[in-house]
């Protein structure tokens, strides 16, 4: 058996494996499991277009098989079939039907496109969030509430969230698959708008959907949907300064000496790096590492090893282990 014959034998196995793997994934990272009205409308359009395409493909396959069987050359029959140059009825049918299908697809597509592109910034019933994409992290500012955070976007359940999106460096793309489609964040004055809504209390995963650099695949964030009362409590906690215990004061001073030039620790703090207000309550470190003291130490010592291309300098060579541990103790107090 030749080498190519051996390879071809594995193609059916690979096909089955690929089919099975299409069912793998996370509920909070799938556009096929919508958790809000925007995502449901977009899924309806996907199903509509897919359904129309499947019907067309099925009809074409059936006609192809019928013609292949009905008009195939029979053994011993050498007669030349009747030559047909055209049929006005058939030509009208296969011209009118595609037009009808296009209208069926175009009308809801145009309607939903205008509906989903509405600008809700300024609506009194919507939460306004300014999103700024950085390489490779996300900044979320709530201008009306006077707070800002990073990596963890917190929203109230059942309420429209109006996003104003831009980028601080290169082109990125904001995407929360469970809540709606992606939209680009452009550098400069070109600001995009988007609105999303979550119908359930849950934590959804968001990603950058535009190739933006070495750690594009690690540019993740979380969207936490809370009941309105819990959201209000979160806002109040973000506005309340953290109480630094006495044994973390040394770490606080080290943080001010080494980190404060980039990172803020205040309700509305905006700086070159992520605002670390409420840092101890976050589930992830740098959006990708489990929130443990060991991972915080690893990140402070050598952030490039965890997320290549990010702009945070390494402190493993400039700070001693006990100094880094003191900073970690201070960060653990920022609840």
Labels describing this entry:
five-stranded mixed beta sheet, 12 strands, 8 helices, 335 residues, alpha+beta, Cyt_c_oxidase_su2, metal-binding, heme, translocase, 2 domains
Tell me about this structure:
This protein has 335 residues and is an alpha+beta fold. The protein has two domains: 27-73 and 84-228, Cupredoxins -  blue copper proteins (Immunoglobulin-like, Sandwich); 246-331, Immunoglobulin-like (Sandwich), CATH 2.60.40. The chain is 38% helix and 19% strand. It has eight helices and twelve strands. A five-stranded mixed β-sheet has the order 3-2-1-5-8. It is elongated, with a radius of gyration of 28 Å. The relative contact order is 0.11. The mean pLDDT is 90. Residues 124-237 form the Cytochrome oxidase subunit II copper A binding domain. Subunits I and II form the functional core of the enzyme complex. Electrons originating in cytochrome c are transferred via heme a and Cu(A) to the binuclear center formed by heme a3 and Cu(B).
